[in-house]
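Sequence only, no structure available. Ideas?
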Amino acid sequence: MPTTLTAFADVTTSDSALRRFLHGLPGVDAVGLEARAAALGTRSIKTTAKAYAIDLAISMIDLTTLEGADTPGKVRALSAKAVNPDPTDRTTPMTAAVCVYPDMVATAKAALNGADVKVASVATAFPAGRAALPVKLADTRDAVAAGADEIDMVIDRGAFLAGRYLETYELIKAVKEACVRPDGSAARLKVIFETGELSTYDNIRRASWIGMLAGADFIKTSTGKVGVNATPANTLLMLEAVRDFKAQTGIQIGVKPAGGIRTTKDAIKFLVLVNETVGEDWLTNHWFRFGASSLLNDLLMQRQKLSTGRYSGPDYVTVD
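Reply:
I predicted one. Tokens follow.
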């Protein structure tokens, strides 16, 4: 099996070559995609499997606060919750990461104090992406310099929708380079497409391939700041894209649905999608994440119910 992008070297040599490749991808059967996502969402799991799924989902959360009213105190509290989600049960897994704005990266890093929780930072003029390239790259470099382990960038949806595919590719590639630290190590890059603004499933597939060809470590559905965010159907489509990409290149890419995933039932549906589409290789927080803020509380309440037989309710978890 090939393990490089050599086979796709000619695809990104020009805008016309990239357009030919992207428009040559198989068209998405929208009815079939949605039907499969809905069918997988009806799968039921037994109690022991549910306990495993809840812990796995907790370990996959990027615990997120991306508000204009964020304060250092709020970020420190969120970081403490990421490390110890349920103070009454120390067996509860840590979350995968804390996701904040670039100016809060240093605060989160200090609060985590070496814990095995990553600091993710949004960048590139999140959430709209409306800024000049030098500003976007400076945004990224500032976050990496402050200690970010991961960067969640947004593409320029205007450029993509106008058909400027090579410009979109070059942006991702430039941000990927900005993620490299002076010592040669690099923050992992998650590329956000804002699927709710891409209009069609074909566009989501094309954006997925642009992101993967440009060096994304993860492809991510949404910012959580628009009306339509992660759905089972658009996540299934992106999972199929990373599966096909690995089959052709040997390179594994992660997937992160974000926005609108609020309940344990929702999270388990997405885990079923992962298991049935790409398999166990992706059932780890190194390759699959949930971008969420409120999801963790519901997972904790369901976890407490499984262990005690009683539903604790929201008063038994911390308020984010």
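The mean pLDDT is 94.
Hope that gets you unstuck.
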